[in-house]
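Entry 14. Structure prediction run on the chain below.
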Amino acid sequence: MTINYDSTYFTVDTTQGNNGVTILGTCGTGLNIVTNSAGKVEISTAFMSAKNIADEDMYKVHVTTKTKLGETNLTMTGEVRKPDTTIIPTVFTGGKVKVGEECKLLGDFNNDCTVNLQDFIVFAQHYNSVSGDTRYGVLYDIHPAQMGTGNWAGIYCKATPDGQIKLGDFIVFANNYGKQCPTPPTNPTISGYVRNLDNTPVSGVTMNFSGIGTTTTNSNGYYSKQVTSGWSGTVTPRNPVTLLRPPAGRTAM
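Output returned:
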């Protein structure tokens, strides 16, 4: 299997595991070769006899993030062969990696933004396992964990998996049980009117919002623009034929 990633976001930590990869479950009983190059990690596993792998974690790739934040894609390709070397049709699916301080509702294993009985049933199936066990899954390894701030206060939302699903993970799960993802803050809207000294509306005036774009006044002199929460900057009117005062206003959201 080959994993391709953008090395400007993170790199494989080759000091961990087998050249940056921990071999899990059934794959740990085979022969494994791991190679790394910039933006790519290749994992090859071979067995002395046929194996039946139904549903389990196979590899854990250790990474070290860089200072660049955001979302990046990774691709996965590879092939699976029988003992006689004929190919077994297999679909490899890549995904996205988010690097940053984003919070996630720990214990919400089915991603419906609620920690409930469905999650508890799944969690129980993986409880009391350690890395390397067939029942272990890093998704359920949610301890040690940190609570968030602001809308996430009182909710465990950041975890550093420690390779075991034990009492600490249950305590985190129990704390979040019944809780939901906080409603994200809505982006505010800045609006107003542009009028002449005699109070008549001025249409066609370009209102420049520093760093985020422009909008134009309508026939009533009205303008509005949605900005991101926390935006701070100036709103500057521009009109090719009319002298406008004041020339700019500073706004912080």
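The first strand starts at residue 2 and ends at 4.
Filed with the rest of this week's runs.
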